[in-house]
Hints:
Number of strands: 8
Radius of gyration: 19 Å
Number of helices: 11
Strand order of the largest sheet: 1-5-4-3-2-6-7-8
Shape: globular
Order of helices and strands: EHEEEEHEEEHHHHHHHHH
Structural class: alpha+beta
Largest sheet: 8 strands, mixed, barrel
Distance between the termini: 59 Å
Amino acid sequence: MTHLQGKMDRSLWQKQATTWFLHSTYQRTFNLTNQHHQEMALVAPIDFPCLPGGIYLPYPIFDEVFGTIQQLQKVTLHENQLVFYLDQKKVTVTMGETFDSRLQIHASILPSECLFLRKIQENNEMTGFDYPLSAFSSAQTFPFRQEIQGLFSNELTDKQQSLTYLVGRGRGLTPSGDDFLLGWLLVQQLKQDNLENNELIMQKAQSPDYTTDVSRHYLRQAATGCYSQALLNLAKTLVEPANEQVMAQRIAEIVAHGHSSGADTLAGIAVTLIEMRRK
């Protein structure tokens, strides 16, 4: 049967015909991987927040596929046609809409940086590091400051040591250290600074030895400048004069992602802004 219409990340739309297989399920989403386990794609309901490499299905089509997910044999994607091959049937979804997960704005000066840091200082949401977000709002209160100082060093050895400390550190599908590094990369890409760090993250993400498959996917995406819609919205807010209500909303949208993933990424953003200011 054929159902209309889903939406997906534009980067997937541009690919040639590909075949995907079930990798994992999580609550109300599931992940696909290609034959060589080099790429991943998230599949979620249509109202789920947009993430890089995401595919979003309308209700009740998502329920139909997810309810029989253990019968999924393969998924094919060609141009705008996504086909789920189940044991007894196939479900075809036309992708009628795309979104762009690329960071496309850059600014050396961030007018709303101070407002963001003030809001983080007021926020006691717990991170996956078992410290509140507010602990990451000042150079005097950074947890494990010595271990992460290398991220802001010009010495490659120091930087590699801090990356090794963070990559894969923590619990869950996306460990806290990896989510922290998403924030670290976002700020540097936003300010067009230290772009060689993209390659360092890509090297870590290409290896299966450091962290989970799902986290490797999002680290690879970040290394190429692709982020969730919530993070892109924050980046846009940082480069413009913003009021407290808008900034609070942007932070809340990110905190809502995952158990602590959003808070961990915000911690990485805050620390990076502070350390880049100190340089």
